[in-house]
């Protein structure tokens, strides 16, 4: 997916993917993870997600990465958070008390920038990428956060019926991309079509959203 596509979506306010409320899967399944107190949570392609505030309120340090400067600045404005702005490598770094947003390209991230990660929450990142980028994304994610368990949210539908994003990512594909490093278990599935008429209008006859727990495989 061209970076200009996402910049245009934010500039033209085509942000139906944004959720005003804290994600329901995060709320329901958070207690299944044993994150250390004051651990570090990474939220890729974070937009202006309220999930980061919820996590920070629980005492965790939260880092998001987001390509759009509009989304980044609106996040801090809408949540009344003051920030300091610095730059490192190819990133503008917006830092508040418990929340940091790295404005730049996810694929430019390295451990020197992001530091130790204890948990990853991917609600809208993997599904935002076309098929030819998802394998690269998974490998890069593991390099960044190889000790971190993950809560991953995907969508399943007939890709021939609708042009993404969001793109369809099947259970088999999740295992294909991640099972070398993680134990993959499905937490729940929801039928979204009855509550998301906009997808019917785009031609879908079925749509399922799935949440997965990805647990790092112990090398021992």
Please specify the SSE layout and strand pairing.
Blueprint: H1 3-11, H2 24-29, E1 40-43, H3 51-57, E2 61-66, H4 69-78, E3 84-88, E4 91-95, E5 99-103, H5 111-114, E6 119-122, H6 131-144, E7 149-156, H7 171-178, E8 182-191, H8 197-201, E9 208-216
Parallel strand pairs: 1-2, 1-6, 2-5, 6-7
Antiparallel strand pairs: 3-4, 4-5, 7-9, 8-9
Note down, in words, how this protein is organized.
The chain is an alpha/beta fold and 220 residues long. The protein has 2 domains: 94 residues, Rossmann fold (3-Layer(aba) Sandwich), CATH 3.40.50.150; 99 residues, Vaccinia Virus protein VP39 (Rossmann fold, 3-Layer(aba) Sandwich). Helix content is 29%, strand content 25%. The protein is built from 8 helices and 9 strands. Strands 3-4-5-2-1-6-7-9-8 form a 9-stranded mixed β-sheet, with helices on both faces. Strand 4 and strand 5 form a beta hairpin. The model has no long low-confidence stretch (mean pLDDT 93).
Q: Care to give the gist of this entry?
A:
The chain is α/β, with parallel strands linked by helices and 220 residues long.
Features:
220 residues, alpha/beta, Rossmann fold, nine-stranded mixed beta sheet, 29% helix
Which whole number gives the mean pLDDT?
Answer: 93
Classification by helices and strands: alpha/beta
Uncertain runs are none
- What order do the SSEs take from the amino end to the carboxyl end, as H and E? HHEHEHEEEHEHEHEHE
CATH class term of the largest domain: Alpha Beta
Proportion in β-strands: 25-35%
- At the fold tier of CATH, the topology name of the largest domain is Rossmann fold
Supply the CATH architecture of the largest domain. Answer: 3-Layer(aba) Sandwich
CATH superfamily grouping of the largest domain: Vaccinia Virus protein VP39
The value of Rg in angstroms is 17 Å
Distance between the termini: 38 Å
Helix content: 25-40%
How do the strands of the widest beta sheet line up side by side? 3-4-5-2-1-6-7-9-8
How is the biggest beta sheet arranged?
A: 9 strands, mixed
Overall geometry comes to globular
Number of continuous helical runs: 8
Overall number of domains:
2
The tally of strands reads: 9
């Amino acid at each position: 997916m061209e970076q200009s596509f996402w910049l245009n979506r934010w500039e033209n306010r085509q942000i139906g993917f944004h959720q005003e409320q804290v994600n329901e899967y995060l709320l329901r399944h958070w207690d299944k993870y044993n994150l250390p107190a004051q651990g570090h949570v990474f939220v890729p392609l974070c937009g202006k997600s309220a999930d980061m505030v919820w996590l920070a309120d629980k005492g965790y340090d939260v880092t998001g990465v987001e390509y759009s400067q509009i989304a980044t600045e609106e996040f801090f404005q809408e949540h009344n958070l003051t920030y300091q702005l610095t730059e490192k490598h190819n990133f503008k770094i917006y830092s508040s008390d418990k929340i940091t947003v790295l404005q730049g390209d996810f694929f430019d991230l390295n451990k020197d920038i992001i530091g130790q990660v204890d948990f990853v929450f991917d609600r809208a990142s993997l599904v935002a990428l076309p098929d030819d980028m998802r394998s690269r994304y998974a490998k890069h994610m593991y390099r960044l956060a190889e000790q971190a368990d993950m809560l991953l949210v995907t969508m399943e539908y007939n890709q021939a019926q609708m042009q993404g994003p969001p793109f369809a990512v099947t259970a088999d594909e999740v295992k294909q991309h991640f099972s070398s490093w993680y134990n993959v278990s499905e937490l729940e599935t929801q039928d979204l079509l009855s509550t998301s008429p906009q997808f019917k209008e785009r031609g879908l006859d079925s749509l399922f959203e799935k949440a997965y727990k990805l647990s790092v495989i112990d090398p021992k």
